[in-house]
Write a structure and sequence with these properties.
single chain, mainly beta, Lipocalin, eight-stranded antiparallel barrel, 1 helix, 4% helix, disordered N terminus
Length: 191
């Protein structure tokens, strides 16, 4: 175990057990393009779930639920449009979920791997690969143990039925189809 310079310890793998996501320290963000040039970012603030880390890391499980109405992009008008039936349709599809189906980890001592799972957005489920990194773990001031994970992937939003767009007069689309997703979560070892 080594120190990371951030107060976290850096074992190659987290301690086996059930790690519950701390909703106050979870960031699920997305980035798309507006007018095919400008990056537009948003995040979801209602993120819950757990990671069950097995002795054999490849047998681990990830289950996450995202409250789609919690979307925040820095613009109240844009957030209202994102929640509308034209895009996320949160009245009909209030949650997005991710459930892992496979975990592949690097060589012994590696802190990175790939978690493949079923991502459901807008009522449509597709398999996606998350590039995952275990950032380390730390004992908190209240006697608990916390672990930090980061992940990223790229999806085509139209694959999930989120198809609203406007064709631009000069060519291209108002909103990009490709969306980058980045995840940073702090988890607490349960029990």
């Amino acid at each position: 175990m080594t120190a990371t310079g951030t107060g976290l310890t850096a074992p190659a793998l987290p301690t086996p057990g059930r790690w519950e996501i701390d909703p106050g320290h979870a960031d699920v963000s997305f980035t798309g393009r507006h007018f095919m040039v400008t990056k537009v970012r948003g995040r979801f603030t209602d993120v819950t779930g757990a990671l069950t880390i097995a002795e054999d890391i490849t047998r681990s499980q990830v289950d996450v639920v995202i409250g789609m109405a919690s979307v925040s992009s820095g613009s109240a008008d844009r957030d209202e449009h994102l929640r509308s039936a034209e895009l996320f349709d949160v009245a009909t599809f209030p949650e997005a979920t991710f459930r892992s189906t496979r975990v592949a980890w690097g060589d012994p001592g590696s802190r990175a791997g790939t978690v493949t799972g079923d991502l459901t957005i807008h009522g449509v489920t597709r398999s996606v690969d998350l590039s995952v990194r275990f950032e380390g773990q730390v004992r908190d001031p209240w006697g608990g143990v916390r672990a930090v994970f980061s992940a990223s992937t790229r999806v085509n939003r139209e694959d999930f039925g989120v198809t609203w767009n406007v064709a631009l007069e000069a060519g291209g689309l108002l909103v990009s189809k490709d969306i980058e997703i980045t995840i940073d979560v702090e988890t607490v070892l349960a029990g």
